[in-house]
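re: ur question from yesterday

yeah so i grabbed the chain u mentioned. its 159 aa long if i counted rite. heres the sequnce exactly as i have it in my notes:
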Amino acid sequence: MEAVAQLKLTLVLFFAAVCLVLVPSTHAKDVKYCDKKGDYVVKVRGVEISPDPVVSGKPATFKISASADQDIDGGKVIIDVSYFGLHVHTEKIELSEETPCPIEAGNFVLSHTQILPGYTPPGSYTLKMTMEDDDNEVLACISFSFKISFGSMLSALLE
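ran it thru and got these structure tokens back, copy pasting raw so excuse formatting
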């Protein structure tokens, strides 16, 4: 009887460990400025992606923590996505759709949620985000990497 109890405990611990590995999480990403010497009005402190890795066919949220040196009335966000170095997507979004405008000088969060198509291939992606004001002046330009896991594509196919 004790052997059965040990086997059950071993199986429970094994499945718990598997679940911890497979459950998507949120991680802060390393951010690189497009122009390392650029003096951007908006300073980005970090990017969080949830879930991480991204799951195709499911919502993915990119939260960008930043601070502005001055008030910003409005503008746009341009998102360029590359897959293993090949450009695959461009999107222009009004700044007011990502964060309440006007933005007062100081800290703010820009949040973008998107559902990637279920057929999106797994792998490494790079997202470049450029923020411009209403006069098309660049307020910030950053890039960071994110992943779509192989399991994401399988789950999309099984649904």
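noticed a couple things. The CA atoms of residues 56 and 118 lie 5 Å apart. also The helical segments are 2-22, 95-98, 150-158.
anyway ttyl
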